[in-house]
Input
Amino acid sequence: SMRSGELKEKLAYIEVHLQGVHYLVAVIDVDDHGELEKFYPESESELLYFAVFNISEEIITKYNGGVVFQNNNEKTIVILSGNHIETLYDNALNMLEEISSSVKSHLKFTVSVGVGEVCTGMDKIHVSHKRAASALDYRFLLGKNRVISINDIEGNINTRVPYDKTWERKLVSGIKSGTLQEIELIISQII
Output
C-alpha cells in the first residue's frame, strides 16, 4: 500500500508540475476483482492492477495532464489540473475514456472510472477524490465498463441540474440510501 510519505511526495510533485488553479480526481477500478483472482494467481492480479496504472500513466503523460498513482495496489488514482474549469473537465473525460478503451483493448478486461468534480485549490483535492469514489458506487446501477461522472448523477454542487436529470438523481440516491417506500414513491412520480 502507499505510504503517506509517498503521497506527500506525489502532492509536492503535483504542486511543482501542475500549475493549474483547479483540480479534478478520478478513481479507476477493475470491474471484476473476483474474476481476476479466479483466473490468475494473486501475484498476477497485482501485475494486472499495475498494468492498468501503467496504461493510465502513459495516456495522462502523453497529454501532460496530471499525476497518476496506485492506491493500495488495486485502484489507480488520477489527479488532473488546469486553469479553466470546463476545459479541465472536458479534457479529463476524454483522457479517461481513452484509458478505459485502451485497457479493454490491451488487457481484455474492463475498468470503471469514477470522476469527481472540479475543485479549486490543492486543499480540496480530498473532496474531489471522495466524490470520485462515490461515483464508482453507481456502477452496480449503471453497469460496468464506463466513465461515471458524479456531476452527471448527483449534479454539481455549484450548478443547477437540468430538469430531466432531477428525477433520475432522486431515484439513484433513493436506491443508494433509501427505503423501498421512498423508491416506490419516486418511481410512481416518474411514471
Q: What stands out?
A: The two ends are 47 Å apart (CA to CA). The chain has a mean pLDDT of 80.
